[in-house]
Specification:
251 residues; alpha+beta; 5'-nucleotidase,  domain 2; five-stranded mixed beta sheet; 37% helix; 22% strand
Length: 251
Amino acid sequence: MRNQKMFLSFLPVLLIACHSARNITGISTTNTPGYKEYKVDSSYKQDSSIARFIRPYSVVVEKQMSAVIGETDTPLLRKTPEGTLGNFVTDAMLQRAKASYNKTIDASFANDGGLRVSEIAKGPITLGKMYELMPFDNIIVLLRLNGKQVLQLMDFIASKKGWPVSGLKMQIKDGKATNQTINGKAIEPDTVYTIATTDYTANGNEGADFLKVFKQENNGYLLRDALIDYVKRKRARKENKGFNRKQDNKC
């Protein structure tokens, strides 16, 4: 993945180069004491030498990102409290984390805001689409929570109107989690469970402050890489029949 990350460092420049020029025509100084209005020359034109310099890198990135790594027979949709896109992400997180950490992991969850596309259309899945879905370098980490703490986590997820989960099951009523299970079994208050999530969430972001007290196990495995690995393995096993829960559990 190292080469991919190197090429992606050029993306901000490429994106600027591919858009038509937008020029500042003026600024408002209303209610901003101390600021003056300056006129900006609107005759700016794209520098052809920069465009020529960028083009070879653009070609490489476009070729790399357009590579097909798998496919889905059904659209993957982002919805709350549950959607097929979120299911795909947390199923991939859980299953690839088990392989990466080489240990039993009971469940996984992800923050809904971390999914940066609303849909993956039916058909081929490109490498670029995985970068669109997960543009951040979020790392999969493991947390060890007892049953009481898992129930607290599920209440928190319910208060968010539902986040993507795998291995956890609940109903949401009046912003609270009910009928909670983990891997189809009742949650035992004193049993310790291993839960996979991202370092972003485990560090207390998006209101999950209570998670900051738990020690994280971290092997540096990016969630984005897990998604890519998951799709590639699906393709290699000729199991591309749509990413649904029943099929994913066979991985």
